[in-house]
Amino acid sequence: MKNQLVADILYQVADLLDLKGDIFFKIRAYRMAAQRIEDLDEDIEIVTSEERLLSIPGVGEALAKKIKEIVETGRLEYYEKLKKEVPEELLVLLDISGLGPRKVSALFKNLGITNIMELKKACIEGKLRDLEGFGEITERNILRGIKLKERTSGRVLLNVAYHDGYNYLNYMKKCEKVDRVSIAGSLRRMKETIGDLDILASSDYPDSVMDFFIRYYDVQRVLLKGSTKTSVLLNNDLQVDLRVVKPESYGAALQYFTGSKEHNVKMRSIAIKKGFKLNEYGLFNKKTDDYVVGESENDVYSKLGLSFIEPELRENRGEIEAAKEGVLPDVVSYDDIKGDFHIHSLWSDGSDTIDTIAENAKKIGYEYIGITDHSQSLKIARGLSEDRVNKKIDEINRINKRYSDFQVFCGTECDIKPDGSLDYSNSILKKFDFVCIGIHTNFKMKKEDMTKRIIRGMENENVDFLAHPTGRLIGRRDPFEIDVEKVIDAAVKTNTRLEINSFPDRLDLSDIYVKYAKEKGVRFVIGSDSHNIDHLSFMRFGVATARRGWLEKKDILNTYSVKEISKILGRE
Ligand SMILES: [Zn+2]
Ligand SMILES: [Zn+2]
Known about the structure:
- By secondary structure, the protein is α/β, with parallel strands linked by helices.
- The chain folds into 4 domains: 3-152, Orthogonal Bundle (DNA polymerase, domain 1); 156-245, Beta Polymerase, domain 2 (2-Layer Sandwich), CATH 3.30.460; 250-325, DNA polymerase, thumb domain (Beta Polymerase, domain 3); 334-569, Metal-dependent hydrolases (TIM Barrel).
- The strands form 4 sheets. It has a 7-stranded parallel β-sheet with strand order 11-12-13-14-15-16-17. It has a 5-stranded mixed β-sheet with strand order 2-4-7-6-5, sandwiched between helices.
- One zinc ion binds at residues 342, 344, 372, 413, 529.
């Protein structure tokens, strides 16, 4: 289904026309058509092929032609042309939260601002507040938007790093001269954003390994080449460092280059207290400089009197103390997951049928899935009316009859309205196998009101999970103003599971809150928030977050069997 693609391009055309200062009616026509297509109950490709585009309100001959072009080719020549007419840097400004096309255009025309640096300077100097339509609050909002963008620039989201890092690793495994090879650094710890990629290899022939390394197909250029360290830049500007060590140092080097810095500082001080010296070459006797261990990470930890610490835990958040006492959690593993409880289907804003999703989930090895389409008032995402909820339940019942070893649970991602009431009546909520609630509108509320809104939502007896509890979008949107501690307390009290949303720009709850919430007694569910079947694999980033938050298998709903799930959800 290409509805969203068509709508996105039309929205962007409207933005560009707006930037250029084109006439209001033309801009509005594009926006309205985009909105209509987003809301459309049927597939735009079918409407196009049956030549019914003109029946969409607001779509005239000219727009119909453009929509047809997008549907057929995936792009729009007019849009490409418009993009060239506007300074490219201005488009970057559109990405800053708090700035729309009208404002960017005004900044350009009145103050000649074309890039982020100029914009920041003008905000700090208070030059925006006198412009029409701007004020001190706008200035502050824009500065905050810039800061958000800066915080993540130069870093990529975990899924991007994961994809590039593990592809590169697989390539390095093919090098005959490589003895052992692994991802190291923050990617091995599965941090939510990653700066550079680190790969570590052991070999007695480092120069051949380096030669092999720089011949990777995706290398844009070589930044530095030596026999212990080589750095390259990938085509997407991500830097990858390869270090090659002797086999006897591999474990110590892996420990060292995995980090975190804070974790390693503590490790080194323990080593010193015990009469050793720890570095990337191994663990040595402090007095004699004799090599003690270093071939495996496990040797290093155990020689220091610690049990092995999983990479995701190495952030100096108490893991070293726990390893010393032997009380580290038995963290959930990546293959403990038996299903996914946050998936959108074609019924709302997803792009696949429940059938297709089920088949793909089975291929992954899942035993069940929970489909969570949006609720009725979320028109942009084609939220389901009561009538369509009933039809969807019928469809899921039909699908379930076909399987003996797989189950589809019918859920909803029900909107929490600004006053904390839910978007469906209790009688509809009871029809679902499970109810997940979340906030998708009115993000800007006072902290106290937002906290009350979420808690009131959780207090509804039909609610099972709270989706993406803080609403943050990494690099794009700060969390809602909420009192997270209070929400966590309420989750325990109302027996609502908090979601770890695995979508790479969410990872919400974040690792630190997960750990805190677990200590308070919260239980969890991990969802991919898939909008198409390719997103199902995002689950691993949610599991990584759970591991970083010290969760064990028993803390997470979707590690249980179908039988246990039905019992837990209490709707057998
Ligand atoms: Zn959502
Ligand atoms: Zn969702």
